[in-house]
Every structure is written in structure tokens, then in C-alpha cells.
Amino acid sequence: MNGDRRRHAYRTEPRAHRLDPRRESRLSLALILLMGFATVSVMATTQVQSAWSTGPVPTDSHR
Q1: CA distance 15 to 17
Q2: According to the UniProt record, where is the region Disordered (predicted)?
């Protein structure tokens, strides 16, 4: 066995590549806005569906 050879022929970066702070904050803001829009959309859809399902209940008061 050759003792000169390193176990790994290449080194990986210890940290992942990060975006610059301005771009990272813009992307974070866009993600928060999209999540808020999705939440509002789901809430509106749920209210519309519940309004359709809770229509007037027929009663037998016409006897």
C-alpha cells in the first residue's frame, strides 16, 4: 500500500454556497408572500365550500 496517497483525492467545501444577503432576503420575502397567498386562498375556498354545504335546511312546517 502506498502511504502517500490521500484517502480522498478531492476536498469538498465545508459549507454550502450561500446567496448574497440582499438576494436571500428577497427570496425569503417572496416565499413568505407566496405562503400567505396560498393560506388566504385555502381559507377563502373553505369558506365558499362551507357556505354551499350549509344552505337552508328544509323543514316540515307545511302540514
Answers
A1: 6
A2: 1-22
| Nearby residues of 50 by Cβ (< 8 Å), 6 or more positions away | none
C-beta separation of 54 from 48 below 8 A: no
- Asked if 27 and 19 touch (Cβ cutoff 8 Å), the reply is yes
Report H helices in 1-63.
Answer: 21-53
**The Cα angle at residue 19 between residues 17 and 25, in degrees rounded to 5:** 145
Single pTM value for the model:
0.51
* 41/49 Cα distance (integer angstroms): 12
